[in-house]
Structures are given as structure tokens and as C-alpha cells.
């Protein structure tokens, strides 16, 4: 929902930092973000929540930097976009798993299974719609977006996911209830995109 506006803000905010990495291949920055994501997962499993939040923050920072650096170098590539989204989804799976490993319970495992299930369905929904839009020459480049692929907007996008995951870590004593809230909102997003597809695809 907020992604397009946040991409513009991110570009301005991270450009001064991107100059520090102007000779670094963007894929290296993406892999560094993955390492921080794995560190966050391990910290959560051992209930080291401030370390986890620190690692999560730098995971997101390097995830933002790779795209800004790629545009600065004029080295954007389809592989870079693919690697970026792949790493994002690895980390998006690891964070809630780490939380549940750190505070295991039957309700936590149930909430985790449902959360990952709705993520799975939502990912299939927006990725297939993105492929159709690219096929119809109505993708990110044609719409002037600073991303590899476009997606129809919904309540939960990348920005909202970052906010929720930050809340999961900071307010970990309530993470099950936060999981439930995110499950509901992602389910609504799936319905939003289904209705969009019914209206816009023939």
C-alpha cells in the first residue's frame, strides 16, 4: 500500500550511503543483507531480541542499498532483481520461524503455519499477476516504478511487512497476536488482488 511512496523516500535517504559502496557489485550487498537476516534468525531462536533487531535493521538497510547502488552504477539487471526478491522471501520466512523457535508453544506453531501459508498464497497471487502485467507490457518499467516487477496494490506490501516484522521483534511477548493480525490483513490483500484480477484481466 505504501511501497511506491517509500521507494521514492528510500532513494533519497540511501543515496548518500550508497556512495560508500559505489564500487561494490549490488549482488554482494544483497548477500550481505542475507547474512544479517540469518543472524537475526539465530538471535531470535536464542531470545537475543536486541541483537535480532540490530541484524534485522541492517538486513533491511543493505536490501535497500543494493537497488540504489545498482541505479547509481547503471548496473540494474534481471538477475539482481531476482536475487533480491529471493533473499527477501528467505528472510521473511526465517524471522517468524526464529521467533517461534525462541518461544515455542502449540499456539505459536499454529500461528506460524497459517502465517506462512497465507504468505505462500499471497506470493503466488502477486507474482503471477506481475508476470501477466509484464506480458501485457504494463509492468514496472512501463509504469515508471523503481523496482524489477510491479504488483497490484494491497493492504500488505513490502513496507507494511517491514513494519510488522519490526513489531514482531520489538514486542515479541505479543508476537502470536501480531501474527494473527498480519494473517488477517494478508488474507484481505489476497482477496483485494483477486478482485483486481476479476476486474482487470480477461
Tally of helical runs:
7
Topology order in helix (H) and strand (E) letters: HHHHHHH
Look at the helices and sheets and give the structural class.
mainly alpha
Q: What number of structural domains do the residues give? A: 1
Please state the second-level CATH architecture. Answer: Up-down Bundle
Which segments are poorly predicted (pLDDT under 50) over 5 or more consecutive residues? none
Mean pLDDT: 87
Largest sheet: none
Rg: 17 Å
Quick summary:
With 202 residues, this protein is mainly alpha-helical. The protein is 77% helix and 0% strand.
Explain the overall architecture.
The protein is an all-alpha fold and 202 residues long. It has a single domain, classed as Four Helix Bundle (Hemerythrin (Met), subunit A), CATH 1.20.120.1760. Helices cover 77% and strands 0% of the residues. It has helices spanning 3-18, 26-45, 49-73, 78-102, 106-135, 158-170, 175-200. The protein is flat and about 45 Å long. The relative contact order is 0.14.
Features:
mainly alpha; 202 residues; Four Helix Bundle (Hemerythrin (Met), subunit A)
Task: List the SSEs and their pairings.
Layout: H1 3-18, H2 26-45, H3 49-73, H4 78-102, H5 106-135, H6 158-170, H7 175-200
Helix pairs in contact: 1-3, 2-3, 2-4, 3-6, 4-5, 5-7, 6-7
Amino acid at each position: 500500500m505504501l511501497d511506491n511512496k517509500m521507494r521514492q523516500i528510500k532513494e533519497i535517504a540511501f543515496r548518500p550511503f550508497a556512495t560508500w559502496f559505489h564500487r561494490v557489485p549490488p549482488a554482494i550487498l544483497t548477500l550481505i543483507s542475507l547474512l544479517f537476516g540469518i543472524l537475526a534468525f539465530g538471535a531470535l531462536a536464542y531470545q537475543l531480541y536486541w541483537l535480532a533487531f540490530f541484524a534485522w535493521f541492517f538486513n533491511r538497510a543493505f536490501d535497500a542499498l543494493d537497488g540504489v547502488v545498482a541505479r547509481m552504477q547503471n548496473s540494474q539487471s534481471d538477475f539482481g532483481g531476482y536475487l533480491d526478491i529471493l533473499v527477501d522471501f528467505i528472510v521473511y520466512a526465517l524471522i517468524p520461524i526464529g521467533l517461534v523457535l525462541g518461544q515455542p508453544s502449540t499456539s505459536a506453531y499454529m500461528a506460524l503455519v497459517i502465517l506462512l501459508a497465507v504468505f505462500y498464497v499471497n506470493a503466488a497471487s502477486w507474482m503471477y499477476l506481475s508476470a501477466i502485467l509484464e506480458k501485457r507490457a504494463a509492468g514496472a518499467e512501463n509504469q515508471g516504478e523503481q523496482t524489477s516487477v510491479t504488483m497490484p496494490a494491497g493492504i500488505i506490501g513490502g513496507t507494511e511487512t517491514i513494519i510488522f516484522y519490526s513489531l514482531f521483534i520489538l514486542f515479541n511477548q505479543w508476537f502470536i497476536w501480531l501474527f494473527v493480525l498480519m494473517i488477517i490483513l494478508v488474507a484481505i490483500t489476497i482477496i483485494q488482488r483477486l478482485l483486481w484480477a476479476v476486474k482487470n484481466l480477461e
